[in-house]
Design goal:
Elements lengths: L1 H15 L2 E5 L4 E5 L3 H4 L6 H8 L4 E2 L17 E10 L2 E10 L8 H19 L1
Helix pairs in contact: 1-4
Length: about 130
């Protein structure tokens, strides 16, 4: 999943104009954008892990959900995220991240995350 994830993260970051991270169940395995050096290969936060386990999509600033950090070791917050589900199991997630406190998600960011998660799910299943 590594090489494909890196290319996908790069394409998504360019498309959205925001940093993108692709995580497995333990760490950020691919990243692109301004936050890349801060988040790549970092362990994911317990909040993000719980979000993946609930198999929920996340939009920052919607339904008064608590803020989710990509990693407990940096200040990058998840703006939008979607779990990667392969054969009924959670394999990871795709997320847009930002260091800005007022950055919120919109439907386009969430749909990009969902599409990328579905793409990776199919690649893993093959």
């Amino acid at each position: 999943m590594g090489a494909v994830s890196a290319e996908l993260a790069e394409a998504m970051a360019r498309t959205a104009g925001m940093s993108c991270a692709i995580c497995d169940r333990d760490a950020v395995i691919a990243a692109a954008g301004g936050a890349k050096k801060d988040i790549l290969e970092r362990s994911i936060s317990s909040e993000l892990e719980q979000l993946m386990e609930r198999r929920e999509c996340y939009e920052r600033g919607v339904d008064e959900q608590p803020e989710v950090l990509i990693s407990s070791q940096d200040g990058c917050a998840v703006v939008a995220a979607a779990p990667i589900i392969t054969d009924g199991d959670v394999s990871g997630c795709v997320a847009f991240v930002s260091e800005k406190e007022d950055e919120t998600a919109d439907e386009v960011l969430l749909k990009l995350c969902q599409s990328a998660a579905q793409f990776l799910s199919k690649r893993i299943a093959v």
